[in-house]
Structures are given as structure tokens and as C-alpha cells.
Amino acid sequence: MNKPGDNMRFCIKKAALFVAVFIAGIACAFSKEAVFEGEDYSIELSYNDSACPGDAVFVRMKFTQTSRKNKVSRTEFGSTEASMEFFAGENKLSQSQFYQLPKSSSRTVLTMLSGIPLSSWLDSEEKYSVKITYSLYGQKKYEFSLPVKIEPKTFVSETLDLDENNTMIKTDTSPERMRQIAELNDILATTDMQSVYQTTSFAAPTDSTRRTSFFADRRVYAYTNGKSSTSLHNGIDYGIPEGTNVLSCAAGKVVLAKSRISTGWSVVIEHLPGLYSLYYHMSSLNVKEGDTVKQGDLIGLSGSTGLATGPHLHWEVRLNMAAVSPDFFLNNFAFESLQ
Ligand SMILES: [Zn+2]
């Protein structure tokens, strides 16, 4: 295994503020840019070198062929592969594959992107890093590591008293509910490398800023039978009246649009390989499975179907199966230049 440092110059060009304003919460994500100069290619690297627990780390790599004499074909260039792994100290916590961004690639330029979810339980005292491994047109593998700083963040803890009906839903172990959970997990586990719909900032799914629950609230559900269970709240709840417009947070493909026992009328949209947004408890839907949507398209009306203690919209984002903070994606998470 060779490190780029063996034959390349590594220099950090600039560290710029990545996030100006968050609607709620703390700005954790800063972007860093770096350049590797190889013998016949260069890599321009953008990534967020800091994040909060429950955010994600995104890395964008732009490979450019710089030498005329070693020119390879488009197909060979396109066979470039890369992956990244996330480490706490020496312990590998997760990994993710890079995919190609079609619009920003040409004969001599290839742009790849990958994101890795961060658990909301990460300890800001620990040392974290991502290790990137890549192989340019079938050549030998290179690897390098980037430090990632995890900022401290506190999450809400709350107890929810469920009534008879919501207790029944939450403790339902019927084959139909189990089938629905497995079906959703199968969808979220799908990483289609061709599914690149939007790499610019997401938008909130409603105009409302009235949030009644937050991402990664630590919840205790108290049942009517005296028992209880604990869980994380995987999304953001907006307290909006029944019948309010619910909008797609980004362009994508509708991969689920149906009524489910626990989440009521629900929509799931695929935006990037392994990246999905979810919308729950609606009163009616305006899209069907297989539809493609643009950012801001009407996908349904809010309601209180499924496990709900009142009308609200539950908005959730999943990356490689893990629930991540939707607020992270309201920023330029994929480092798309905005000219
Ligand atoms: Zn919710």
C-alpha cells in the first residue's frame, strides 16, 4: 500500500466556514480543501473536517489527468474506484463506497462523492479519522487519512405517555407490521450507484419552523400497561395542522408511497446512492412509487395517521441505513460549486 505522500505533494489550500447559519442547533460542519499532485493526475479534495454526533462526513474527490503522454481512455479512467472508512482511534466503525457524479465528469476529469453517517452517540473527546483508499484506472491502491473533529452536542431526553391506541401500535408484533419493517429496511439498505439526483443543499419539507421534536431525542415510551421502552427519535417533527403541504426536500425517485401501521401514510424518496428522505403520518399522498420528483414538489398533506399523538410531519434522513440529522443536508454538504 502506497501513501500519496510517497510521490505527491499534499497541501491544504484553505479552511473555510462551511455553514453560515443553521435553522436550529449548532453549526458543526466546516469544509476543508486540499490538493494532491500526482505524476500524471491531481486530486482536488473537499470534505467536512468537523461535524456533530448524528451528522455525516462527506468527501468529494475530483481526479484530473494532467499528463498528455499517459492519457488513458474514458472507460479506463471511469473504472477508478474509491472507498472510505471511519475510525475512532484504531477502531473501524463504518465504511462507504464512492460513486461518480456524472455531470461533473469528462474525458480528463472524474468527480466522485461519498458520505458516511456518524452515530449520535459519538464522544467528542475521542480522536476520529476517515481513511480514503483509491485505485486510479486499475493501477495500484493508494490510501491516506484525514482527521475529523467531533464537536460536543447535547440531545433532548423526554418521556412520552402513550394512550391505549398508540400503545397497541408501538407493541404490535403482528406479521404484517414485521413485514412492513423488513420491507422498509430492504429499501434503505439498497445502494444504487447510478442514483444521483441532487448534490446541492436540501430544503425543509414545510415552511413551518415549529419543531415539536428534534433529531436523536432520547425517548422513553411509557405504555398503558405500565411497561416502557427506550428509543431514539430518528427525525424532526414539525407541529403543523392537518392538510398542510408536504414538499420533497430534494430531487429524487419515490421508492415507497403507502400506508404503514406505525408511520401512517408514508413516502420515502431516494436522492443519492444510500441516501433517502422519509415523510410520515400524512393524511393523503400526491405521489406514487416510481415517480421522480424535483425539490419542492408537493408529495402529500400532513396528518396524524399511524403512531401520532397529534397532527405533525415526521421528516427523517437515512444514509447507509443510519438515521442522520436532516439539518446537516440543508447546507452545501456535497461541495457543489454554486456558479
Ligand atoms: Zn417523529
TrEMBL record:
Record CDD domains: M23_peptidase (cd12797)
Keywords of the record: Signal
Signal peptide from the UniProt entry: 1-29
Gene3D superfamilies: Glucose Permease (Domain IIA)
Domain M23ase beta-sheet core: 232-326
Keyword Magnesium: no
Protein name (Swiss-Prot/TrEMBL): M23 family metallopeptidase
